[in-house]
Amino acid sequence: MTQAPPFHLAFPVSDLEATRRFYVDVLGCRVGREATRWIDFDFFGHQISAHLVDENRVDENRVDGAGAVLPTNPVDGKDVPVRHFGAILEWRAWHALVERLRGLGVQFLIEPHIRFVGEPGEQATLFVVDPSGHALEFKSFRDTRQIFAT
Fold this sequence. Notes:
With 150 residues, the chain is α+β, with helices and mostly antiparallel strands. The protein has helices at residues 16-26, 55-58, 91-103; strands spanning 8-13, 30-35, 38-43, 46-52, 72-75, 78-81, 84-88, 110-115, 123-129, 135-141.
């Protein structure tokens, strides 16, 4: 697999300081540029921008029960939020993130587990929710050449 260029994603948040704490203290992201109503984060080598919006404009993205629930699709017996983003990490880094999240008492939307054991595309995956209710998936492949395996 060739090295892909970093992506950029902007997303709405209802509380900028809670978002900063989650992405920095929980996920370990570095802060980039920021202004009164937005913060850029180094999200595992990619740039994501959290933009402060009025609470009612964030509700459409919630999955945490405090607002509207996003549509889900059943995947391996779990209700996976259709709208989500995340990162593919190196195998050891994914396991280190799991331990970090557990150590901080972070509640998993979908518990860490391994999918497709012994099959092409074997992968580790987990889901968490940020303070504004965005679902984030972190995954890892035993063999990164199989990220797009069919």
